[in-house]
């Protein structure tokens, strides 16, 4: 099975077709309940506007976030690291006030890394690839990533490409729900937390903003944004922004670059009905990082990198190892007020991401394998011993599109919601190998390596997925809106199919169908205007990730697959509970206790395919897991322009069963779960007097295991970042600003996270059945070294 470009175009049709229908229909809508948002409304709409209702932090598609002017000075609590929340679950948020004081080169995962329970790491001062984020011990593949109502994660591997979706300067806020995802969120992998990125929508007045940054490792970024303001009295506002960033890798040879574009056009049909078209484009490439095991880290430290000079047979030559992160995203968000308490949110969207990713590979000239089929000699070569060194180019591409509908009816103390989400995704990935010369150079004009006229490859994957999700939610408010009870159920139906088009592949085709119900109950009580308690019971799921869960991957040297599909293809499923308290005042404080149970926890054992620099993952069903803990955060209002923030989490985890491994069983029951530090903490200080400002953040992560047997771990570490800046004298309508950001102030060399888990790292271990088992080494990500970034910007209003 294969998918042509025309098939991928068909996957994009819901965005365009439904978009034009929605825009045409919007003109017939009647005002009833005001659209919940806090951003400036165009003048034509303001003249008729009724009082607005307060929005929930995560109301999908109906919520617009505050469009904060970068030159405005307000008394922000906790330096923008904490905001007032009302939902009956733990929610933390960073706002544009905080984002604007950070290096413009970091990714959104790092922006939320001071929030309770969150570990967000950067592999460099500037990175264009997917990032590593952990929340309450769950990694980015288990976290729902949402940007303006669109799913951010790769629909099959769940890799998070947040830096490809939006520039930091265009973010209004980034919110984290540590324990559960929203019932109406378009996610298929959020068995735990949800991370939501919200756009700074078009402003009501004309404004322009320009920024230039530069610093260590030749890092630089240029950014420009223009808001048109309301165009005439049409009710239409828009903005467009563009950026270019580049730099050298801070460790090892190589470089990276990124071109990015964001744009939005919004039309207010009435004071309570609007449509907004959002578009994003990203084109990026960088030299690949190498991920050391613990022995390599201890021996080489930050010197374990790709190689700057080519020698024959060297697959780690840096010019052979590059990764592209390209994306085109678009959505049309519509909020229609239908009168008599009825409202409809309708949002079609489409996301296309594509490579290629390039690696090095040594391919046998004779007696190699294509799938399980042995070949005599590569086409164009004479029988000889040895191998051909080649660049392995993976021109992967995938398109996902969907339609999310949420209808609501508000009557008195009750609000009823019905939701429907349809998603369609296709994925294709294969390899073309081009021989390199004695200098490590290649040309595609010579053609890729073949056997019998067919490309030599280790996998040739085609897949598609369809999802239908139906949701029903009812909310009731009692005792003068002090008690809120919200209960709902979402039924998720997923069909996923993959084919492995290599000879002898078993299975050649895998079709899996899943039905996953996800109920939740949220209850909150407002003790006073500034004090709230809440309790909830939620569920979440994650469909098994990556094509390796369904079809095998092969190597050139043996007919035996290097990865095998999951023997038990069952979604992860989580049941979680929280109880919490919030207090708002000069000192804001929240505290919550949580517990969750996870079944069929799937981890990925990552390793390099023999003879190549290609990472592949073997999915492992690690069985059950339970966790309980407590998290808290605290912030203060500015006192003499200084505000403080602190967060912390304690968590205890436990593996619920022994794990089958290599024909035996490992005694893992009762061990601590991987990537689940017992303690996390952060401190933040912010100074801002309207002219001079500064920000300091200190973060701590406890040690964490990387194997299910708890026989290998990475040490605890501290990191600290700081920024200091000043608004320069205004001239005319232009106000300039200068800022210096320091990342990893102590230049701590540390392993920041685990990229590939294993059951055991022991060279030899006895299974419970008496069999001698051999372990494998986990792989680790290296945290960024010290970097200094200077930024000069100016706003024109």
Automatic annotation (TrEMBL):
Top-level taxon in the UniProt lineage: Bacteria
Main subcellular location: membrane
Keyword entries, A-Z: Cell outer membrane, Ion transport, Iron, Iron transport, Membrane, Receptor, Signal, Transmembrane, Transmembrane beta strand, Transport
Signal peptide stretch: 1-24
Keyword Coiled coil: no
Residues annotated as transmembrane: none
Location in the cell: Cell outer membrane
Topology term for the membrane: Multi-pass membrane protein
Protein name per Swiss-Prot or TrEMBL: TonB-dependent receptor
Pfam families reported for this sequence: Plug
Domain TonB-dependent receptor plug span(s) in chain numbering: 86-183
């Amino acid at each position: 099975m294969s998918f042509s470009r025309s098939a991928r175009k068909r996957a994009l049709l819901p965005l365009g077709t439904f978009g034009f229908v929605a825009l045409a229909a919007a003109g017939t809508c009647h005002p009833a309940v005001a659209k919940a948002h806090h951003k400036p409304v165009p003048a034509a709409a303001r003249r008729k506007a009724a009082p607005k209702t307060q929005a929930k932090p995560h109301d999908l598609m109906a919520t617009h976030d505050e469009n904060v002017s970068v030159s405005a000075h307000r008394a922000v609590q906790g330096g923008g690291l904490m905001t007032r929340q009302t939902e009956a679950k733990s929610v933390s948020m960073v706002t544009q006030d905080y984002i604007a004081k950070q290096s413009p080169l970091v990714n959104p995962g790092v922006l939320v890394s001071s929030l309770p329970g969150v570990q967000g790491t950067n592999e460099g001062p500037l990175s264009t690839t997917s990032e590593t984020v952990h929340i309450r011990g769950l990694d980015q593949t288990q976290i729902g990533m949402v940007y303006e109502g669109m799913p951010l994660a790769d629909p099959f591997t769940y890799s998070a490409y947040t830096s490809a979706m939006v520039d930091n300067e265009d973010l209004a806020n980034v919110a984290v729900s540590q324990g559960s995802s929203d019932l109406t969120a378009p996610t298929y992998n959020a068995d735990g937390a949800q991370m939501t990125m919200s756009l700074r929508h078009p402003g009501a007045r004309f404004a322009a903003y320009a920024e230039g940054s530069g610093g260590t490792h030749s890092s630089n970024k240029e950014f420009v944004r223009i808001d048109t303001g309301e165009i005439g009295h049409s009710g239409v506002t828009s903005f467009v922004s563009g950026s270019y960033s580049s730099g050298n890798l801070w460790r090892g040879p190589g470089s990276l670059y990124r071109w990015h574009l964001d744009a939005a056009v919004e039309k207010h049909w009435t004071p309570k009905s609007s449509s907004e078209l959002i578009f994003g484009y990203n084109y990026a490439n960088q030299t690949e990082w190498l991920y050391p095991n613990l022995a390599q880290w201890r021996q080489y430290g930050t010197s374990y990198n790709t190689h700057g000079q080519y020698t024959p047979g060297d697959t780690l030559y840096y010019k052979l190892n590059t990764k592209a992160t390209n994306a085109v995203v678009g959505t049309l968000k519509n909020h229609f007020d239908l009168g008599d308490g009825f409202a409809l949110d309708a949002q079609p969207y489409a996301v296309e991401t594509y490579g290629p990713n390039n690696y090095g590979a040594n391919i046998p000239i004779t007696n190699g394998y294509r799938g399980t089929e042995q070949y005599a000699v590569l086409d164009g070569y004479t029988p000889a011993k040895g191998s051909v060194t080649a660049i392995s180019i993976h021109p992967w591409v995938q398109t996902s599109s969907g339609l999310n509908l949420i209808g609501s009816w508000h009557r008195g103390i009750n609000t009823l919601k019905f939701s429907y989400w349809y998603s369609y995704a296709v994925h294709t990935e294969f390899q073309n190998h081009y021989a390199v010369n004695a200098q490590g150079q290649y040309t595609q004009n010579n053609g890729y390596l073949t056997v019998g006229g067919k490309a030599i490859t280790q996998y040739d994957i085609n897949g598609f997925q369809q999802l239908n999700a139906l949701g029903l939610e009812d909310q009731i408010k009692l005792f003068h809106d002090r008690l809120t009870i919200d209960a709902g159920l979402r039924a998720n139906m997923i069909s996923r199919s993959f084919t492995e088009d290599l000879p002898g592949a078993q299975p050649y085709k895998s079709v899996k169908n899943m039905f996953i119900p996800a109920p939740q109950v949220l209850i909150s009580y407002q003790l006073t205007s500034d004090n709230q308690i809440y309790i909830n019971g939620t569920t979440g799921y994650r469909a098994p990730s990556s094509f390796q869960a369904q079809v095998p991957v092969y190597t050139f040297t043996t007919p035996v697959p290097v990865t095998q599909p999951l023997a038990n293809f069952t979604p992860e499923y989580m049941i979680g509970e929280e109880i919490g308290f919030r207090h708002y005042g000069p000192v804001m404080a929240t505290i919550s206790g949580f517990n969750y149970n996870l079944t069929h926890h799937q981890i990925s054992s990552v390793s390099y395919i023999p003879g190549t620099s290609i990472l592949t993952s073997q999915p492992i069903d690690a069985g059950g897991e339970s966790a309980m803990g407590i998290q808290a955060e605290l912030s203060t209002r500015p006192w003499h322009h200084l505000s403080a923030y602190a967060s912390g989490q304690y968590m205890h985890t436990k593996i619920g069963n022994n794990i089958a491994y290599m024909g035996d069983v490992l005694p893992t029951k009762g061990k601590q779960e991987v990537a689940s530090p017992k303690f996390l903490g952060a401190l933040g200080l912010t100074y801002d007097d309207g002219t001079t400002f500064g920000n300091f953040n200190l973060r701590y992560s406890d040690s964490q295991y990387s194997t299910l047997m708890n026989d290998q771990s990475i040490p605890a570490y501290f990191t600290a970042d700081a920024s200091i800046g000043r608004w320069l004298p205004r001239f005319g309508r232009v106000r300039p600003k200068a800022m210096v950001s320091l990342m990893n102030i102590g230049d701590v060399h540390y392993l920041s996270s685990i990229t590939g888990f294993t059951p055991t790292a022991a060279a030899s271990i006895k299974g419970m059945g008496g069999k001698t088992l051999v372990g494998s080494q986990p792989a680790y990500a290296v945290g960024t070294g010290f970097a200094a970034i200077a930024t000069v910007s100016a706003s024109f209003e």
